Amino acid sequence: MPSESPVDRLCDRLGYRFRDPVLLREALTHKSHLNELPDPTRRDSERLEFLGDAVLDLVISDLLLVRFPEAPEGELSKLKARLVSEVALSSVAKELDLGAALALGRGEELTGGREKPSLLADALEAVLAAVYLDGGLDAARAVIVRMCEGAFEDLSRPDVTDHKTALQEWCQREFDVLPVYAVLRESGPDHRKTFEVRLTIRDEVYGTGTGRSKKEAEQQAARMALEKIKQRSS
After folding, report:
1. Which of 1, 33, 141, 229 falls 20 to 30 Å from 72 in CA-CA distance?
2. Which residues are tagged catalytic?
3. CA distance 169 to 175
4. How many CB atoms lie within 10 A of CB 102?
5. Tell me: the pLDDT tens digits for 68-108?
């Protein structure tokens, strides 16, 4: 059997199949691709990025009003800013392996475009716009709810320090890359699994973590990485 393409895998992870694949192709076409390989039959993703930003803003605002009915406007604005930040969106894009499906120019490819947080965040917004145009607001909402489920759980637990977000912001500021988490092993029965995760930044191991979920293990690994970074700078 032929192996599944990066675009097909992306659709599987999104949980959405496009009726009009041209919309998805446009969302995945970075301007650098058409700058180097002009094609009158294709458009780049910038117009969809503009629309996707508005779709995401609307859906996230609505979800926050439902999830936090007593929160004042100022608090809702802060929560929304966290959910739609470049760090948050690029992290989701990384989990979707969105970078592998992008059509990039050679120059962008050689400079690590598939890992750049700003590029990934923009591409995710374009994909959400494509879902909206293809299937309507309900379809876009379903995709956004699915991809933001973990982030909403974190918002509901303000007592938990978000080491992953702090580390992502540092990586973006210092290197313009995202940290990479890899599961080393899983152990235990299904109802009491333990995960061990390794964290690398630019192919260097910065930390490992264990936990009863991948998210918990990743938080531990991120905490260890932040401690390592602090020690190096002191």
Report:
1. 141
2. 53, 125
3. 10
4. 25
5. 888 889 888 888 888 888 878 888 898 899 999 999 999 88
User: What pLDDT band is residue 159 in, cutting at 50, 70 and 90?
Assistant: very low
Q: Which tens digit of pLDDT belongs to each residue from 184-234?
A: 988 877 767 788 999 999 999 999 988 877 887 888 899 899 989 988 887
H or E segment to which residue 204 belongs = strand 204-211
- Specify the DSSP element, H or E, that contains 201: strand 194-201
Identify which of 91, 84, 85 has the alpha carbon closest to the alpha carbon of residue 177.
Answer: 91
**1 within a domain of the structure (yes/no):** no
Type of residue found at 25: R
Beta-ladder partners of 199: 181, 207
Query: Which letter does DSSP use for residue 188 in this model?
Result: S
Residues 6+ apart with CB under 8 A from 188: 194
The Cα 45–Cα 58 span in angstroms is: 20
Q: Which pTM does this prediction carry?
A: 0.71
> How far apart (Å, rounded) are the C-alpha atoms in residues 52 and 147?
15
87 found inside a domain: yes
50 and 150 part of one domain: yes
Q: Are residues 22 and 125 in the same domain?
A: yes
* Domain identity same for 146 and 173: no
Q: Would you say residue 116 lies in a domain? A: yes
CATH assignment of the domain containing 70: 1.10.1520.10
Question: In which domain, by residue range, is 129 found?
Answer: 6-155
> How far apart, in whole angstroms, are the C-alpha atoms of residue 92 and residue 143?
12
